[in-house]
Specification:
alpha+beta; globular; single chain; about 35% helix
Length: about 425
C-alpha cells in the first residue's frame, strides 16, 4: 500500500505561512524573472489564470480583482519542503521524495486505520509547518496519485466527490461500487502518466474516464499504444508495477539556464552569466559524483521582442572528463567566444553538461605530457563547495563571474520577492506580543 503526500498550491502556501493576510486572496508566484505564473492559489485559479500565464497578460487583475503577484523565493520553498517531508516520513517506514512538494510513502506493515493516521499526519504538518496537504492512499503508486487528486478536488470543489474523501482519500477502503463511481467521475487525463497526446488518442477511441481505461485489456493496450500505458493500466487494476525509488538515478545531463533581467549587449556581461551558470552546473555534477565529457553553451535573443533575432549554441569537448569548476568554466567561455556576435539584445544564456559518467571511472592516457598539468584538485573543489554551502552561494567564486552580486547587469528582476524567512538571520521574522 502506498500514500502520496502533496502540498496544496505549495509555493503560495509557503508565502502564506509568513503573510497570513494573503489567505483568501488571489495569489500567483512568478517565475525567476517575473515572467509568468508558476503557482496559483485557488482564488487565482477561479479568476481563470492558467499555469504559465505571462505576467503582462494578467497584471491588470491586480487592480481589477486584487491579484497579488510574488517573485519566486526558492530558498524559502526548499527549506519549507525539507520540514514538510520530515513530518510526512512519519506516515510509513519508507519514503520517496518525488518533487519539492510530493512524496510517496510505503505503508507496508503499518497497522490500524490508515485514514485516521493520515489525518493526524496532515494536521501535524499544518500545525508545525503551516502547509495544507492532500493525502491519497492506494495499493499502487498510480492509484495513490489518483487518490491524492480526488482528495484535493473533493476539498476544493465540494460536490465533485463524496465529502468523506476530502483531504484524505483511501481508495482501498471503498466498496467496489463506490470506487467505480469515483473512477467514472474522473477524466482519463488525470491519470499519472497519461499525457496530452495519449489522452487525446484515448478520447478519440471512446475512453473518457478512469473507469473506461482500467477496464481495457492490458495486452491490447500494449499492442495498440505502448508498454508504458500497459503498465499504467495494470497499476490502475491494482497490480504494482512501479516500486518505491529510494535512490533516484543520477542525471544524464545537467543544465543551468536563466533569462536576463534586461537585454544584454556586451560580451563581458554575458561571460559573467555564463561563468556563474557553468559554476552552478559544476557544483551539481560534483554533488552526484559524476564528471562531464562535454560542455554546451548557448545564447539567444527574446522571441517576444521586435528585435533582430539570433540564437546559437556550441559544444566543447573536454580533453578528459572533469568536474573541476575552472575546467568547465573555461570550456563554456571558449564556446561563448565562438558564438557571440555584437549588435544583438541578448535575453537568455545557458550551460549544459553532457556525456556525464561516474567519477569513479577515470579514462587513462599515454603519459606524453607534463604531469603537473593534471593536478588533482578534488580537495580544492570540496573546500569550495563547503564554504559556499556554509556561508552562502557566491562566497567563493571564479573571478570571471564578477564581484557585483545582485547588481550585475544580467541579474534577475525578482522585484516582488519576499524575505528568506527561514534561511537568513537578517530576514527572520520577529513576533511581538
Amino acid at each position: 500500500m502506498y500514500a502520496l503526500v502533496d502540498g496544496n498550491n505549495f509555493y503560495v502556501s509557503c508565502e502564506r505561512v509568513f503573510r497570513p493576510s494573503l489567505n483568501g486572496q488571489p495569489v500567483v508566484v512568478l517565475s525567476n524573472n517575473d515572467g509568468c505564473a508558476i503557482a496559483r492559489s485557488n482564488e487565482a485559479k477561479a479568476l481563470g489564470i492558467a499555469m504559465g500565464a505571462p505576467w503582462f497578460q494578467i497584471k491588470h487583475l491586480a487592480e481589477d480583482a486584487g491579484l497579488v503577484a510574488l517573485s519566486a523565493n526558492f530558498a524559502l520553498y526548499g527549506d519549507m519542503s525539507d520540514r514538510m517531508m520530515s513530518l510526512a516520513a512519519g506516515l510509513g517506514p519508507a519514503q520517496e521524495i518525488y518533487s519539492i512538494d510530493e512524496s510517496f510513502i510505503d505503508l507496508s506493515g503499518v497497522k490500524g486505520d490508515l485514514v485516521e493516521r493520515s489525518h493526524k499526519i496532515r494536521a501535524r504538518i499544518l500545525q508545525w509547518v503551516g502547509i495544507p496537504c492532500g493525502i491519497g492512499i492506494g495499493p499502487t503508486k498510480t492509484l495513490a496519485k489518483l487518490a491524492n487528486h480526488i482528495a484535493k478536488t473533493a476539498e476544493r470543489k465540494p460536490g465533485t466527490y463524496p465529502n468523506k474523501l476530502a483531504q484524505v482519500c483511501n481508495l482501498a477502503s471503498l466498496e467496489k461500487s463506490e470506487c467505480e463511481a469515483v473512477f467514472a467521475a474522473t477524466a482519463v487525463n488525470e491519470v499519472w502518466g497519461v499525457g496530452r497526446q495519449i489522452s487525446k488518442q484515448l478520447q478519440e477511441g471512446g475512453i473518457h474516464t478512469v473507469l473506461d481505461l482500467m477496464q481495457l485489456d492490458p495486452a491490447t493496450v500494449r499492442s495498440k499504444w505502448s508498454v508504458v500505458l500497459e503498465r499504467t493500466v495494470r497499476e490502475l487494476q491494482g497490480t504494482p508495477c512501479i516500486d518505491l525509488d529510494h535512490t533516484p538515478a543520477a542525471k544524464k545531463e545537467i543544465a543551468c539556464t536563466r533569462s536576463f533581467g534586461r537585454p544584454i549587449t556586451e560580451q563581458h556581461h554575458i561571460a559573467e552569466a555564463v561563468t556563474e551558470f557553468a559554476s552552478r552546473a559544476a557544483e551539481k555534477v560534483r554533488k552526484q559524483h559524476s564528471q562531464a565529457g562535454q560542455v554546451l553553451v548557448y545564447i539567444r535573443t527574446s522571441p517576444f521582442r521586435k528585435d533582430l533575432q539570433y540564437s546559437r549554441s556550441m559544444v566543447t569537448p573536454l580533453r578528459r572528463p572533469s568536474a573541476d569548476t575552472a575546467c568547465i568554466v573555461k570550456a563554456a567561455l571558449q564556446g561563448l567566444n565562438h558564438i557571440f556576435k555584437p549588435g544583438f539584445n541578448y535575453a537568455k544564456a545557458g550551460v549544459m553538461l553532457l556525456d556525464l559518467q561516474p567519477d569513479t571511472n577515470q579514462q587513462a592516457e599515454l603519459d606524453l605530457e607534463d604531469r603537473d598539468a593534471e593536478e588533482d584538485r578534488t580537495r580544492l573543489m570540496t573546500a569550495m563547495d563547503t564554504l559556499n554551502q556554509r556561508f552562502g552561494k557566491g562566497t567563493v567564486l571564479t573571478a570571471s563571474a564578477g564581484l557585483e552580486g545582485v547588481r550585475r547587469e544580467w541579474s534577475m528582476k525578482q522585484l516582488r520577492r519576499t524575505p528568506a524567512y527561514t534561511t537568513r538571520w537578517d530576514d527572520m521574522p520577529v513576533a511581538r506580543a
